[in-house]
């Protein structure tokens, strides 16, 4: 019988250990497929953060380095500057890259470091059990905003891709979602482009992926997807936020 | 052999280049800045890379990434900056990463001042960051040693897969002295089957320090403990100065270690049998140096630029078998050789007649 | 044998350069030496000082308690450092910028109108070299030929700089004869 669908070579045999309905697995599969399609699995070194995204080091079949919380991009820079001909990507949650690691997010982009960063934005700290993240929406209840995020106390959620797109060293910035088959295909296109940008040595490439956290949101998997569509997508600017002329001609 | 006249900090940069260091990540801070300035000027000419990071945290984590690829890497900073690096040093120790971290000590706590100090002794020798780990710590006392020990630091880092700290101070960093720049063959690095450089024709590798179970955690700790014991056994370094017939000892390292040599010579002129043990490795502390003297020395003065930190290791090394006193200056002040001798004489009432 | 020299003045008077001339002269003679600058906040206050130790044996303590000689290029430097010369030592004072009422009697004080003499040479920034000339006869470990070689190295691509500096040193030497 002809095999029409299988596990990407970019992934190991380790089964995903994420909660039911979590879209981390979908995003990782997209990255793995891109690594396979671009034939760069053996050239790639991934950097995993702290948080649920940290499990990525077990699931990808390429070499991996585990970084301290927030430091994945600095670690990635150290790798890339040492081995400029390898592909380097970081896979980070929104807390990792947009709270404790913000300084690296800004400066990695500003220096135009030739690495790729994937941010998984689920508007909450998942691993630690559902605390407020820099991306938590106004009014959203978490264990550290039990009455809902109060702007007068906690300020506004950060739309990191918009921030990064303003920096000259960032040549490709996209914000995508994996809530529907159509959007999953869009997300894969963006991720693939980001890696192609790195391969061409054009500068820093950044893709933010909106993701679900049914466990900490207190919703079913299906309701989570709906919640993401109705609440997150209107807040976070979606699509290709930035693609320089060089990137467009790839 | 080529002899050059450079600032201490510049010598560290030159030694790094000649040690096969390929990448440097840092952030400017007085009094260490000449290291990054020197490398920014001279490193690109020989294919090296300098990145001025967004902050000290960025710099140490870039070192972490570079070290994961098996590339020789260094960072340099001064006390407050080194505090910021501690998390990264802990992670590097946990993964077993070779790297050289230069701490041009200034005085603290807090922002402190820029004068020479040794107030980071505890931080350097007790791990410094979270978790139970050690870094090898080398303490040069003059320009030639800044050069030689920088080279040694890279070799020890590779040999033990461990971060090595070059523990110096602002005085040594800013002073110019002649240095013989010795070329040396690149150290043989045999075991490279751990580096992460792309899984080409081999199984994937992961360098990370998370231990999901307590059993794995303990096994890791035991492995590192064995390594630290091995280092303690094999790598203690110190210099002895007029110790053979000494009745009293000074113990001091770095800038003060060198000042103490003048004190010893002055004491000897007066007929006082004073000697000096100058630790070169601060960790592992050279306990072995004290074994021959434990039972015959009348007393010890440690001379430090802090409130008394190394004195604890000295007391442990001599098992408190004799009085151990502290002479210290702080806040960036340096003692003169005469002040040290006066303290010693006053403390032990030691005169030529008596001894 | 050891020469410990303190050099002090305003920032811009060439104090560090003066120290480097001595240091490179020491290098040329294969001496042990330390060139110790003031650094950090001390540098920002407008005053500058550095010290140089030249020695034909190993230099253990690099901390200068009492110096064998000092050059002070202005009054604040005189006030700060005149007490730091050992009894029997030499203190060169730029009398153009430091008028002295009474001086220590246990040291040799050489008062020399260095800024005026430098102006006569057409370059007021070489008062430091005039003072070095005045100190030269008291230095035991470096001579004029070593100073000239050091100057050549430091002047680099500006040989005219070297000529004017050497002229200033010679004028200082003449003055003390």
Give the CATH level 1 class of the largest domain in chain B. Answer: Alpha Beta
Strand order of the largest sheet of chain C: 2-3-1-4-5-6
What is the name of the CATH architecture of chain C? 3-Layer(aba) Sandwich
Based on CA inertia axes, which overall geometry of chain C fits? globular
CATH-assigned homologous superfamily of chain C: Pyruvate-ferredoxin oxidoreductase, PFOR, domain III
| CATH topology descriptor of the largest domain in chain B | Rossmann fold
| Quantity of strands of chain C, as a count | 6
Termini separation of chain C comes to 25 Å
Average pLDDT of chain B works out at: 95
Q: Assign the CATH topology of chain C.
A: Pyruvate-ferredoxin Oxidoreductase, domain 3
Indicate how many domains the architecture of chain C comprises: 1
Residue ranges of chain C: pLDDT <50 for 5 or more in a row? none
Summarize the structure.
The complex is a heterotrimer of chains A (250), B (355) and C (177). Chain A is α/β, with parallel strands linked by helices. In chain A, 38% of the residues lie in helices and 18% in strands.
General description of the model:
The complex is a heterotrimer of chains A (250), B (355) and C (177). Chain A has helices spanning 24-37, 56-59, 72-82, 94-100, 102-110, 151-154, 160-165, 181-199, 214-217, 221-232, 245-248, and strands at 44-48, 63-66, 87-93, 116-121, 124-125, 131-132, 170-177, 204-210, 239-243. In chain A, 38% of the residues lie in helices and 18% in strands. In chain A, the strands form two sheets. In chain A, strands 2-1-3-4-8-7-9 form a seven-stranded mixed sheet, sandwiched between helices. Chain A has 250 residues and is of the alpha/beta class. In chain B, helix 1 (8-18) crosses helix 2, helix 1 packs across helix 6 (143-160) and helix 3 (56-68) runs parallel beside helix 4. In chain B, 38% of the residues lie in helices and 21% in strands. Chain B has helices at residues 8-18, 33-42, 56-68, 79-95, 121-125, 143-160, 170-174, 214-234, 254-269, 310-317, 337-348, and strands spanning 3-7, 23-26, 49-52, 73-77, 99-107, 113-116, 136-138, 163-169, 176-180, 206-207, 238-241, 248-251, 274-279, 281-283, 299-304, 324-328. In chain B, strands 2, 3, 4, 5, 6, 7, 8 and 14 form an eight-stranded mixed sheet that branches. Chain B has a five-stranded mixed sheet with strand order 11-13-12-15-16, sandwiched between helices. Chain B has two domains: 3-234, Thiamin diphosphate (ThDP)-binding fold, Pyr/PP domains (Rossmann fold), CATH 3.40.50.970; 239-348, 3-Layer(aba) Sandwich (Rossmann fold). The longest helix of chain B is centred in the middle third of the chain and has 21 residues, at 214-234. By secondary structure, chain C is an alpha/beta fold. Chain C has a single domain, classed as Pyruvate-ferredoxin oxidoreductase, PFOR, domain III (Pyruvate-ferredoxin Oxidoreductase, domain 3), CATH 3.40.920. Chain C has seven helices and six strands, in the order E-H-E-H-E-E-H-E-E-H-H-H-H. Chain C starts with a strand and ends with a helix. The mean pLDDT of chain C is 92. The interface between A and B is large, with 37 and 39 residues. Strand 2 of chain A pairs parallel with strand 10 of chain B, so a sheet runs across the interface.
